[in-house]
Design a protein that fits this description.
single chain, 122 residues, alpha+beta, 5-stranded mixed sheet, 4 helices, globular
Length: 122
């Protein structure tokens, strides 16, 4: 991460058999919501395996306030429940040092919070 305030999130999902098209449609709605409503989210990339069976989502937030805005925003509050009808969240990782309030907001998803201890940026 470029600065110590940024929060990175990795989500892993297992897409239900035969639900790839529905999954892609809901993901598109979530991407649009984040793009138009969350300026503090600077990366929101979705990756699918061939056959649409597994998905990884890579997210980057300016700070804890931006992460909190995401978990209180349209993508999570209104659209994620629809996504969870066609996919299972199998792992959610938060990388960085979220504020206590942001950590509490993500805890409902069984989130692993990993704090940086070493590394480099170029």
């Amino acid at each position: 991460m470029a600065n110590e305030n940024q929060i990175e999130v990795w989500a892993q999902l297992k897409v239900s058999a035969g639900q790839g098209e529905a999954f892609r449609a809901i993901a598109g709605q979530m991407i649009e919501a984040v793009d138009t409503q969350e300026p503090g989210c600077t990366r929101y990339h979705w990756f699918l395996t061939d056959g649409d069976s597994e998905c990884s989502v890579s997210e980057l937030y300016d700070d804890s306030a931006a992460l909190l805005a995401h978990f209180r925003g349209t993508a999570i509050v209104d659209l994620a429940p629809n996504l969870f009808t066609v996919a299972e969240l199998t792992r959610l990782e938060v990388h960085g040092s979220p504020s206590p309030e942001a950590a509490e907001a993500v805890a409902a998803f069984g989130t692993a919070i990993l704090k940086a201890f070493s590394g480099l940026n170029r």
